[in-house]
Every structure is written in structure tokens, then in C-alpha cells.
Amino acid sequence: MAAAYMKVGRGFSILNYLLKPRKVSAVSHLSRNIRKQCGLYGTTKILMPALSPTMTEGTIVKWYKKEGDTVNPGDLLCNIKTDKADVGMDTEEGGILAKILKPDNSADVQIGTLIALLVEEGEDWQKVQVPTEVVSAKSAAQTTVSPQTQTTIVTETHEEAGHAASGIGPSVRKLLEEYGLTAGQVTSSGPHGRILKGDILKVIKQKNLQRKDIKAKLKPTPASPLPPPPPPPPVSATATASAKAPVKTLPPITRPPPSPPIEGEEYKDIPNTNIRRVIAKRLTESKTTIPHSYVTIDYNVGPVTKLRKQLTNENVKVSVNDFIIKAAAIALQRVPKVNSLWNGEAIQMSSTVDISVAVATSQGLITPIVKNAAYLGIDEISLTVKDLATRARDNKLQLHEFQGGSFTISNLGMFGISEFSAVINPPQTAIMAVGSSRLTLDEDGKPQTRMTATLSYDSRVLDEAEASEFLEVFRDFMENPNLTMSGSRMSKLLSAKN
Amino acid sequence: MLPAVRQRILIFPKSLFGSIYQANNYATEATFKTQPYKLHMLENGPSTEVTMTRDEGLQYYRQMQVIRRMETVAGNLYKAKAIRGFCHLYSGQEAICTGMEAAITKEDAVITAYRAHGWTYIRGVSVHGVLAELTGRASGCTQGKGGSMHMYTKNFYGGNGIVGAQVPLGAGIAFALKYQKKNNVCLALYGDGAANQGQLFEAFNMSQLWKLPVIYICENNGYGMGTSAERAAASTTYYKRGDYIPGIWVDGMDVLAVREATRFAKDYVLKHGPILMETATYRYSGHSMSDPGTSYRTREEIESVRGKRDPIFNLKEKLLSSGFSTEQDLKNIDSDVRKEVDEAAEKAKSDPELPLEELYNHIIVDPPSDMRVRGCDVTISAPTKG
Predict the structure, then answer these.
(1) Fewest 10 Å CB contacts: which of A435, A453, B88, B359?
(2) ipTM for this model
(3) What pTM, to 2 d.p., does this model score?
């Protein structure tokens, strides 16, 4: 009631009520004042957000609100999967979720795309108008993404000519000089038409230019594999198909941007996940750049099985795989050249032995790392591997837990594979593939279980002798497992027993 | 016909009575009770009975809505990659800057940390100035050179990136004010995370020794980045951390309480020396735009604060219950604010950026006209202006 008078104003209130006939019920006057908010704010567009500075597109996994639901500020709207993580998207606006334009499991939604519409409360949300122009027409500064992200190939149109010439960085200038190029010969892809180092490297590769000072030699991509590679050349479509490219031209291994690769079309009902793409890219890179060589050894697992049984009686649960990891770790310490990384310029010897263990998950193969394996006891290795494997299957590994590592072990023994060879994980130097045990006879005709291990190694780093030495040490430790346990708690257990 | 007449007769006495009643209350104030203040080394504190006139109430409401909307829009612009770099949002803490600004004058100085967009606006920069600064345009309040953490205006010293660095600076500003014999104070704000920094205590010491007119304010939103206050500080009674400096604890979600406490503090400080205020508040967003804000606290907690302690909502209830405004009026203010902020955002997105020559300006004050500055290597050199 009081509020109603406010509208009319102080002095006029009495008079107006006397003079003006009003068809109003005696019920509260307040209800007259709260009229429907039709179109007070219009519809709010919800665009695909950039949830991290490097994100260019993502997948909408699940919507937590349905069309017609009331949304309060701060509510969780949907889950968005980016190249790095699954992040929830909140809304700051309140209202009713009128229309969802990109439903659950929409993949490859670009930043800035319209994904939903919100209307004010009280409005008829079913009659919301979907804007036809759903493009995010932003300035060049937003659409040009720095070449660090693998996006669509952008040759930047030279807008804002005022900025073009002066923004060349010192490394770019140096490269221009060394390779005898001028700024005009290089297409720029940086903001405001700036030439970036990646652009020059691209041109160098395309034209197979040679550096003025140094002997002419075809260099592979100078950037080490771990940081993001330079942008792919425009003719990438032809480069993807064959796994074995002719050595002479050696195109950059990076695949074109994440549009579904050709393999994807054959499996109509299995769309490629991010993990699958990354695996495909890295394996191709590995097989085509690294000259693989293989050495195989087989060894008697009898002693290991016996020791394992002993430990089980002591309530220490370990598996043969843990012994393999430990033996490999010690062998890596003894033959340190195998425990190295190839970074294009030099062989980088790792100071610690970090062994990546291949774990099969529903999404693909992932390799969590057992750090400092040489100094862990077998029981510790066992616990670490179990924990990592569980978390890998639940997709809960953190980035540092599967990126890195200096050596990989892949064990297909549980599938009954007797022997196989694995693909090296760049920039590591070697990977060991372990098969299952088989029953044979030894020299005396007694039954013996043996196992085969194949080491795939990078011929640029190791030669046959070094690789063989490594496998020999590995076999020695597998056949004398007590040596692997020196210094750990379990050796005390065993020596007490014995 | 008859019903209408009857209705009129029915209404008439009520209207007469009602308007006379209302005539008395139209321009007067409403009184509210705040939460009790906690005091440290003070005999008397600010009054828990606070009054508010209609104009004041609507003004604070509008200001807080502007800040809330501006921060929302800043968040959306960041997600659309129109704003890059750092962006720390003030949503949820608006009552502090609004209440304090109401208690001080434009001649008093304020210095705060990087969660400064709200303060920049309240100290006099337009929404367009703030948003254009965030998007890095020449029309921003620092000509686009500062960005989120370096916004300044008269008697507002920013906008400081280093945690806790602004507190000794605030003591220095107070020193200058006292030295120049001005009857003004300096508000030096910091967060609960910065409250454990050493230089704060150095500043406390000097300001108490020389009786500087500085009000230290700890905006305690419960989290220093992702660490809750209990996990970061041995003593979470931040208002007592000044030790020999008297302290007041204020409910930072109540704009009137904040105003009252700041008035009391300003009064005290001009006579006796520094004072420390702790304002208990909450931020809805994460620490910055790269923090979703839900990995160290639950959504339920955020929702419950939004539901029960939201400063704008509390002020709205006060306005409605005292009869100073109606739902419709407030909704009109909301839509007005929204329009203003959205227009400013559009301008901020489309305004021209700085020309490249600006890179070399504002380095030296009043440089000689033939001076040239060097770039990152000897081949880059350009003329400069002050």
C-alpha cells in the first residue's frame, strides 16, 4: 500500500484518489506494480567460453539444466571438455534457460559460438527467437590465435597495416638474415600481421633453405617434441596418409588441425577422442623420425616366481611386472646411455630413472611414470604401479604423472603374447616389450618357464652393443632377483628367513 | 456504477489516512540494526544503529549493481578472449567499496590490491573507462597501458600487483597527507592472504609511531587464492593482528555497517593514529579468471552465501521493507544499469587500440624533445614523450 502511494507522489495522493475513479480491487495495490517483465532485458546469448587462455574449441559433455529450468546466478550450466581438462561452466546471469543450441556431446564447438539462450523470468521461454547470425564476429586480435595452438591454418590478412612492418622480433630478424629471406617472402600469422618465428621456420622447411654459415644439412624440426610444434604447412592433406614418408622431403610430422582424420571415417561409430588423436600423432612421429632397431633376449623367470611366492608368504604382494620394472631400472643405471632423451641437438642423459609403464585404458594406451624407480623397493613399485593404473583407468592422472619419463616398459604378458616389439615414445631412447612366460625345457630336460623381452631402441643414440649390454644386465637381474632387493626392507625379511 | 462509487468510498478513508502517514515518512530516514562490531583495544565502537535515507539507499543499490554487472561483463569478455592477462573480479564484495566511499570524501586517498575494478569505479572512473582499460583500448582510464591491475584516478592509487605491497605505500600516502597538514585519511586495503606479509607489520609500526592518518582494511573473503584463511594464518582474527593498533571487525556484506564503521574510523584516525578494520566478506568467483573457484570450496557454500548474505539482496530487502522503493523501481534500476554497462562493453570492444608509438611514451617525465629511447636491441629506437 505504501508503495502505491510512492508512485503517485506526496502532494497529489489524496486528491488523485478522490477524483480519479479506479477499477481496482481491494486486494493489495502492490500487485499492480509488479507487472510482467516482458522483454525487459531481451534474450541473453550464452557463448562458448574460453576456459583457458589456449583453448580454441571444446566439447560440451553434459548439460545440467534442461530447457525451461530456472537458472540462478552462480549455477552450473554444463560441463565442457577442453584439450586439457573437464571444466564446469557457471552462469552469472539469472533467468530461464530457453533453448539449448548445442546439446550433450557436441564436439568441436569453437569459442564464441552460441550454445544456449537465456530469457528473463516471466517471459515465455518457448517462444524465444534463435538469432540466425550465430557468428562471433570479433576483431582480428581474437580470431588470430598464436601458432602455439594447433588450429586451422591461418594466413593472416594484413589488416591494420600500420602495425605490420615494425613488429619483428630479434630472433625473427636473425633468421631472416641467416637464410637470406626478406620480410615480404614470409607470410605472417601473428597478431596485426606480425611475422613470427614459426612462420620463418615454415618457409625454411618448405623451400629447404640452407643456413649461410653452417654446412648444408636437412635438419628435422628444431623444436624438441615436448613443446608445441610449429604450424603445419598448407599442403598437409597429402602428408598424412602414408606412415612412411620418403626420407628426402621429410615433411613436418604434425598432423593438420583436429578435424577427424581419415581413419575416423572408417569407424563411423567411434569418433576420435582427444587422446586417440594425440596417440596417433605421436606414434606416427615416432615411427617416421626415429630409426627403430630391435634386440631380443629371453630369460628364465623361475627365480623371480620363486621369490615372489616367498614374498607372498610374508604378505608382500608383488607381481612379476614389478620385478621387471625394478630390473630394468637397475639396468638403466648400469647402462646410462639407454636412460636418455634425444632432443634433436644432443643426447640428454637423464639424472633419474623414471620408467613409464604402459597401462591400457578404455580411452587408449597411457603411460604413467614410476619416478626414481631405481631407488624404490619392489613393494613400493608395486603400490605405485597399482595406484597409477587405477587412476589412469579413472582418467584421474595429473599432467606431470604421464608426461616425461626416460624409459618405457610395455607388458602384454597378461594377454598371452609371447613376444612383440613396441614403438618408442619420443623423446625417449628405448622401449622394452615384455611377453608372457612359456614352459620349456632347460639343458637338463627339466621344465623351465622363460619369458622374452624385446628392446626397441633409437639407432641414432645406441648401437647394437650398448643395447645388447642393457638387455644382458636386465636378464642377469631377472635371473638373480635377490640382487634387485639389496638395501630394501624385503632383503632383511628374506635374510631373516634364511 | 454503483460498485465503483462504493469502492471509491471504501478507498477514500484509507487513502487519506495512508497518505498522511506516508507524507511523514517520505523524506525521512529508516533505521536498521547491524551485526555487533568486534573491537580490539577500543572502548567504544561504531554504532549498531544505522540510518539510511531513500536517496542514499537507491544510490548505494545502483552503485553495487553497476559493479556487479560490470564484473559479470568483464568475466564474459574474458571468456570471449576480449580481455587477456589477469582479471580478478569483485563480485560479492561490492558493499565494501560502496560503503566506504560513502563515508569518505574525494579528497581522501585509497589504495588497494589487484581486485580493484569496483574501487576504480567507485572512485570516479566511468564503467567505460574501466572496461576499455581491461580490453586494452586507448580510451581506458590508464590509456590501455595498465590493464586490470593498474587502474588509477585522482586520489586512487590503484591497482597493485604485488601482494601486500600497497600497505606500506598506503602508510606513505597517509604520511604525505599529514605532512601537508590536510585533514584527510588514506584507506589501505589488503586481503586475508596478504595479512601475513611482513611489510604490513613494518607499516603498522611506523604508522603508529608517527600517528599517521591511515585506516588499514583487511578484506577477508576467507580465501587467499585457493587457501582458506584457517589453513594460511595462525590467527584469523585479522582485526587484532595490528596488536598495538586498535581494530574493528565489521560485517562486510552490510553496506550500512561498513559505512558506519568507516565514519567512525576516519574520525578516530584523524585524532589518534592508525586503526585496523577487518571486513568479513565473500567472493563468488574464483581468485582470478583462471580459477573456477570450486576446487577448494563447494558450490553449496557459494550458493548459500549468495542466498543469505548477498549485499545487494540485503540492501534490496531493506529498501523494500522501509518502503523506500518497490520491486518495479529496483527492476528498472537493474535494467538501466544493465543497459549502461552493456553499452560501455560494446564501446570497449570496438574502441581503437593504442598506436604503436605509444610504446615509447610515458617513460620519462618531461623528456627533452630530441630524446630517443632504445628498444630491446640497438636497432629499435624511437622518440619519446612524457
Answers:
(1) B359
(2) 0.71
(3) 0.56
